[in-house]
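Technical annex B. To support the medicinal chemistry partners, we prepared a structural model of the target in complex with pyridoxal-5'-phosphate, based solely on the information shown next.
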Amino acid sequence: MKDLNELVNTEDQDFFHTYKRLKVVIERGDGCYLFTDKGEKILDMFGGLAVNVLGYNHPKINAAIEDQVKRYVHISNLFYQEKQIALADKILQLTGFSKVFFSNSGTESVEAAIKLIRKYFLGTNKKTLISFTGSFHGRTIGALSLTARRKYRDQFEPLMPGVKHLEFNSLSDLEDNINDDTAGVFVECIQGEGGVNMATDAFITKINELKEKYGFIVVADEIQSGVGRTGKMHGFEHFGLDADIVTLAKGIGGGLPLGAILGNERVKNVFSVGEHGSTFGGNPVAAACGLVIFTELENGLMDKVNRLSEYLFAKLNIMKSKFPEKIKDIRGKGLMIGIELNSPGQPVVEKMMQKEVLVNCTNENVIRLLPPYIIAENDIDLFIDRFSDSV
Ligand SMILES: Cc1ncc(COP(=O)(O)O)c(C=O)c1O
């Protein structure tokens, strides 16, 4: 394997500079740990950005990949595909939604939802799409138009017209801006990139009331908070959002690129043949892994998420009471947790990395935890120990 300096220099020359990399070379992963070429063992509290819900080198994921690779890796959406169909069936059975469309990523799931809404309201005056301050819905032009955080969008205007960003958790903003023209409302009930910000119950109730009055479509963006991450199948279930469409990605493919939208009875007949599609969408190897994930969720994995979440929150709350001047807030659900500091978070991330624990900072001062669901109590103890030192 090439050493770090060689990799850095070659990437610097070859790549568009879109990523800021950590200065380590990962050789392999196992469970909740990453192993570097220097022999370090890093506890991963970020799970590949909410993707690796079963951690690394999971025997069931590995077996599903091996089995499918031996049969075929890709045959195109010209064919009925056993693994896709089995996964769709399992998801619909576990969620109560009526239809599924498979994509490859979160942003593509959001695009599919936008297109579905456009088609549903074709020929009507319902054209406006609503999203909220602090939101992140992806980086392709449609999804980016919904993404409200300026740092992601400022340099790429003009974006898609007809999108309004309202203040997250403002009831008056909803009342003042939602009307007969509103076609769709996109909500992250727990905003991930925005800093693990939680919707208030009153805010979600108001969205539901306005939906009843004006008939727009509600999209729950569950790309980060879905697939059991919050201790329920979808994060919006904690809030009672009346969602017509759910967008999924990240954890759904067990580490392979996969996304999906789920639709309820209301929207189930919107798309016809050829109106939407994707060459790779629902790739059979990714779908085989997705089937492992949803089978584990069906068999009690979310109980584990809830148990570990309780354990982690209890430890974090003790820390907060010990260091009230350092820790401002602890929030989130399940294993999607934000620790808001009273100071910038990046130095803490760097100190943690020196102590061989990977965490992430979002929105300047929020340490974000998105660990694999297979994390154990003693891993959490290790995290708390090193986090206390670093804070
Ligand atoms: C809530 C939410 N929506 C959409 C996206 C975009 O997903 P992707 O990066 O797979 O396109 C993300 C990614 O972080 C997300 O957190």
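Notes passed to the chemistry partners:
The chain has twelve helices and 17 strands.
The first strand starts at residue 26 and ends at 30.
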